[in-house]
Amino acid sequence: MHQGPTTGWLLRSQTPSGSVASMSEPMSPSVGMGVLHLFCKPGQSFDRQATINAVKEAESAGLTVITVSMLGHKSDACFMALANDMRDLRRLQSAIQRAGLDIVDSYVSLTEVSEYAVGVPQEMLNARLYPKIPVPGKNAFCFYPMSKRRNVGANWFTLPYEERLRQMQEHGHSGRKFGAKVTQLVTGSTGLDDYEWGVTLFAVNPDDLKEVVYTMRFDQASAEYAEFGPFCMGMLTPIDELVDLL
């Protein structure tokens, strides 16, 4: 079998034998936090108390863990976690699996500041990198992934920066109209998962979720250049109540 050149980037970037980092060494983004969405259904060995313990132990370790009772057939529960160390996210995932929950879908991303956040105060930028969620009173939950189109005649990445900036500022203006009713967290996933961004919405009422997504689809950045993945919806639910629904 032909092995190819021996001086390519792949071989040069390989870690020398015996120097793989252990789980005790942090794996952290240089800026921001790791974000993990786990969508689960209870398996035959589902353990309510072990599930509660998994969440409580993660929170004690400094993670933000949001527990959601999901509607529909796609999943029964969502565990959304944010951590400075990606290895802590893996530990939570392992604990949830050991508790007898089957992970039927997932999404991996990082908090980020958009390249179009021109003129945004530093305090607001920090809130995107290190978000304080959930927001009290906003218990309706929605998650969906999305990417920008690369179609002939509608390729986002061939547009000049100034045009992309204009469209995203228009898009942001539409979203801010819903600020009192909806909190949005957009996280980056290029190279980490199947889409380029994950979008998590927290709203006062379920119809607020529908209204904000519908309204923003008329913006040019969405109508002409957005590709959406599957949507899922649920309700924020304390972990000790969530396990009784599974």
Characterization of the model:
The chain has helices spanning 9-12, 48-60, 86-98, 122-129, 161-176, 206-216, 220-223, 239-242; strands at 34-42, 64-70, 77-83, 101-111, 140-148, 150-151, 154-155, 182-188, 197-203, 226-228, 232-236. The model is unreliable at 1-13 (pLDDT under 50). The protein has 2 domains: 28-111, 2-Layer Sandwich (Alpha-Beta Plaits), CATH 3.30.70.1030; 122-235, Apc35880, domain 1 (Alpha-Beta Plaits). The protein has 246 residues and is α+β, with helices and mostly antiparallel strands. The longest helix is centred in the last third of the chain and has 16 residues, at 161-176. A hairpin with an 8-residue loop joins strand 8 (182-188) and strand 9. It contains 8 helices and 11 strands. The strands form 2 sheets. It has an 8-stranded antiparallel barrel. A two-stranded antiparallel sheet has the order 6-7. Helix 2 (48-60) packs antiparallel against helix 3 (86-98).
Which descriptors apply to this entry?
246 residues, single chain, disordered N terminus, Alpha-Beta Plaits, 11 strands, two-stranded antiparallel sheet, 8-stranded antiparallel barrel, 2 domains, alpha+beta
Structural class: alpha+beta
Distance between the termini: 50 Å
- Radius of gyration over all CA atoms, rounded: 20 Å
Number of strands: 11
How do the strands and helices of this protein lay out in sequence?
Elements: H1 9-12, E1 34-42, H2 48-60, E2 64-70, E3 77-83, H3 86-98, E4 101-111, H4 122-129, E5 140-148, E6 150-151, E7 154-155, H5 161-176, E8 182-188, E9 197-203, H6 206-216, H7 220-223, E10 226-228, E11 232-236, H8 239-242
